[in-house]
Amino acid sequence: MSKQPDTPALVSCSRSMNYDELSLLADRVASVVCDGEMIAVVMPPGPEIAAVMLGLLRRGAVFFLLNPETPEAERASMLGRLQIRTAIALYSFVNTMKQYVAQVFRLREIEQLTINGSRASGEIKPRDLAYIVHTSGSTGEQKFVEVEHHSLAHALGALVDLFGIAAGDRRIARASPGTDYFISEILVTLSGGGAVVFPNSAGALTITEFTAEMRRERITVTGIPASYWHEWVRQTNENNKLPPDLRLVITGMERVDPGSLAKWRKLVGNRVRLLNVYGPAETTLIATAYESLATDNADPVHVRIGRPVAAAAVRVLDQGLRRLPPGVVGELCVGGAGVVRGYRDDEHATRSQFVADPFNSKSGARLYKTGDYGYLDSTGYFVFVGRRDEQVKIRGHRVELGEIEAVLQRNDSVRQAVCTMMQYDDDRWLVAHIVPEQTFAETELRAWLKTQVPAHMRPAEFVVLDEIPMLRSGKIDRDALIKRHAARIAQQNNGAGRPADSGKLQQLWHELFGRHHTILPTDNFFDCGGDSLQAVQLLAGIEKEFGVSLSLQDLFAHPTIAGQRALIEGGHAASNYTSLSRLNETNSGRPLVIVHGWGGGFFHTIHFARRLNRPVYGLQAIEHVGTSRHESVEEMAAHYADEMMREFGNGPTDLLGHSLGGVIAYATACALAQRRHRVGKLFIVDTIPSNLPKWVHVKFLAPYIRARIPLHMRTLLRTPPQHWRQFIRARRRSWKELMKKRRALGQPKSPPRRYDYYRDLSEKFVPQCREFDVRLLTASNNPIEIYWRYLVGNNVRVVPLHSGHVDMFTREHLDEFIAAFYAADHGANSINQKPLSILRA
Fold it and tell me: Which pLDDT belongs to residue 474?
């Protein structure tokens, strides 16, 4: 870590930390856990999760990062298998985690602890566990990789040297929590004294947005999957150059395309270092690396994965663990200090994949059999050829086909399931071959899968069969399934890899995912299985073929070929963009306008918008359409009100705002009322209004306090006297936190170390009292409705949410949120808005 405490360590739009602040929070985290204790960490990407990781490592506790977007069934399975009893979470995930673990520490409470004396650190031994990371299993069961401290220390030291990380470096973090690559992004950068930058947008970024983000944040180091890097290379040219501060690009996780590498060398040369890295989670972060130089000879078929790093010993062996000569393909096996302890509570898998190293005389030396195939070329570099049939890479994720089959066969409508991967050029997709029970509905099976596995593990196509072909040995004949399906594709597509030319736009769709079925002009991009990377590729293809620049908002509003063709033929261009965008295609009913929050976008609400049976629009910040930012919330609200007046006349319209978006929605409603536009319902989602008079907190919290005191007294009397002091301290901390959350967002005690545009807006905005019909959807257990009643009167209808503040719009919780939205919508009609001339009594 950096020797200069004031050096930036963690940077995001909502919070930043220097190394001194990071160390202090890490020590506080270390003080609440025990040596060797296994802790689940449930947080979205941000400075907080990095600080928690560091604190647990210091203490000698074992952390397990759990992605907040993990489906509920998979989350329960993971925590049950690992038998985790303690978790650390942000407040929005506390209630969710209480279902699975005995104790949940709220990070906000930890941050308020006072550390006395020296740093809270444990006695860590080299063979102690550092963390556990999840990976897929070939038998359909989950695997949990156990990584020891000595393996992590070797890897971090080697990778800091390999990447040249030093103070002044800024690395953008793009991986998802729960992956070993996310752990590498954080720990390697901090170990070298650099700064980790978390993107402003948590969603998918187009190549243009990604490049602009790196340019704005002065990024020097980035790591991206090969598939995304391929698209980046395709769009890089003399007019669209790399960010000036960028010095290192790390790619891998999939096979690198030699054509993209050749283009990179031609355009970039040696100005920016390019590393192609390889390393399963079982070898601790990275096992090999290849630095591509402009003078190297390009292989037309395979790209090298380089030479061993981090004290790894990589060999190409046959089935008898005998060394193979250069040029002969065999299994890549990795030994050395990076080989992990094994799989948690899976002795059979550990014994089969971690074997004694016959080439190392050191006692206890082991070798990991990766299941990947490659060879050693004549220059001493390793070359990756492919993976085992049952283990594939889909959009940067390692996927075990057996795991998907095991999930499918848990469904009552499926008798037998076999998954295969189809490939055409660079495109890969999963196909599920199903032998169904008597009743089988594909749409219902797809909906069920969304609750069981993440998006990259869901098959794009389902093929119904009477029986699965078998070999004489009794094993499944996967080759026969693939060949039959390839023949079916060729027959459907006139014997070619794609349908006959039906227009350039339709052909672009076929190049993305249309090779296995016919694409119709009315097909929906998202229903066809389109993901964020394919969206980026489609928009880039449209711009290249037609010279028309469409945005992701256009794709959401016009997800069909017919809709996109109309935009192209109409000469749609960036200059036509407004803040108000259409999010669905329903025309009947009162319009609902979703107002953006922090970050300025509404992409996280798109699935909610498409599920509503009414017209839904989104308001995005003008910075997203190439215009300078607003200087205040009032100016922003006036701009949005003018656009809504042009679109909807005098109304009525409903507005919805989540988090900071609730404040902006309220300001917009006030601006609309001043223009005599009828505001219907104002849906406020988990928002606390800012800058209210201080006396409001006391006056409106008094009934809450009176109701809670008897409850606390009864609890205190039931508590043994020796625990009274502990109980009173806990209640005091809870009260201080409540008051802090309810207090207006005044200037912080010390200025933020990084300018936050949206925080600055909220600090300046002082809401005015005006009557509206407010429907408050809240995930908070505290009575935040009392503040909205101060602003709008008593016409506030409250609907509780059981999801967290951050994850309520995710697919896992979307059904619950929609049900709550309809419950909130069923109430009193809108009322006339009148300015309030007196304070609320």
Answer: 45
